[in-house]
Amino acid sequence: MKKVIFIMIIFVGFILSGCNKDEVSKPIFEFSTDNIKQTGWKGTLRVNFKDETNEKEISLLFLDDKVGRYEYKKTQTGGFDYDIDGKLLRIWGLQSNKLEGDWMLVEFTENKLILKDELYSEQYNKTLELTRDY
Prior knowledge:
Elements: H1 2-17, H2 33-36, E1 39-49, E2 52-62, E3 67-72, E4 76-85, E5 88-92, E6 101-108, E7 112-117, E8 124-132
Antiparallel strand pairs: 1-2, 1-8, 2-3, 3-4, 4-5, 5-6, 6-7, 7-8
């Protein structure tokens, strides 16, 4: 009988040692309109054209699940329409063509968003690297 109790104590000890209360599971963020609407992002828009790279400040505000606003180089502002389909962010309705087009998701976390346009073009491509501001 003592052996059975001893084995049960060891078994319970193994089970309890596997539980770590300090370990918090990180949520997985899905790139969707639900997770991006009513958020603000700041960072850079990098444009590569042949051998030249141009990098300027940009901020994006996704107002709801269809409309957003942008500020580029602290001098250009405006609104845009957008749609998210899987890893694809489509932006249109702009006065500036810097943001308009199809952007592929590279990385999305709670506080980081990286998008690329023209993924396979060596001559011309754009990258948005943004940090959540709001």
